[in-house]
């Protein structure tokens, strides 16, 4: 299986929107998912054998990076792909020499909290 991470291009939006609805208890509106050119946008998709299996939305405003959304297709969760994506996100922040990185997570979202905790320094 070949994993690849690429900038989120319009061609991927249909798959991203499907995953958004399947993965999240409180999905974003489709208009938010489709907005890939907002200021500082650095959104990416994770492809497994050319198929979109996950993505993150992030924003870099003068060195302050915010992770806005991250999701893995529920059919592919629990296989380490969330870690692959988060690792890429953090490397991207380092490469951009980000001054700070922010994210928010619901207290009840145990899966996401465990994922983020795994990267805490
Ligand atoms: C959060 C999410 C991206 C994790 O993706 P994933 O591919 O399942 O995660 P991984 O398989 O890489 O697992 C990474 C870590 O997450 C945690 N985790 C994964 N599945 C878990 C589960 N069922 N219960 C508790 N923790 C879990 C573990 O700490 C795991 O590390 P470990 O395998 O070393 O124990 C995925 O669950 C998801 O898309 N959730 C819905 C969307 C969401 O809530 N996004 C975050 C808020 S914006």
Give the secondary structure arrangement, pairings included:
Blueprint: E1 3-7, H1 13-23, H2 30-34, E2 44-48, E3 51-61, E4 64-72, H3 81-95, E5 100-103, H4 110-117
Parallel strand pairs: 4-5
Antiparallel strand pairs: 1-2, 2-3, 3-4
The protein binds coenzyme A (COA).
Please, could you describe this protein's structure?
With 121 residues, the protein is α+β, with helices and mostly antiparallel strands. It contains 4 helices and 5 strands, in the order βααβββαβα. It has helices at residues 13-23, 30-34, 81-95, 110-117, and strands spanning 3-7, 44-48, 51-61, 64-72, 100-103. Strands 1-2-3-4-5 form a 5-stranded mixed β-sheet, sandwiched between helices. Helix 3 links the parallel strand 4 (64-72) and strand 5. The longest helix is centred in the last third of the chain and has 15 residues, at 81-95. The protein is globular. The termini are far apart.
């Amino acid at each position: 299986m070949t994993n690849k991470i690429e900038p989120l291009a319009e061609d991927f939006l249909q798959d991203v929107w499907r995953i958004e609805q399947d993965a999240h208890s409180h999905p974003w509106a489709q208009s938010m998912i489709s907005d890939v050119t907002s200021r500082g946008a650095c959104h990416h998709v994770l492809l497994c054998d050319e198929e979109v299996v996950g993505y993150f939305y992030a924003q870099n405003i003068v060195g302050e990076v915010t992770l806005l959304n991250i999701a893995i297709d529920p059919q592919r969760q629990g296989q380490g792909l969330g870690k692959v994506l988060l690792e890429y996100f953090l490397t991207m922040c380092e490469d951009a020499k980000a001054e700070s990185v922010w994210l928010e997570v619901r207290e009840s979202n145990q899966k996401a909290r465990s994922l983020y905790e795994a990267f805490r320094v």
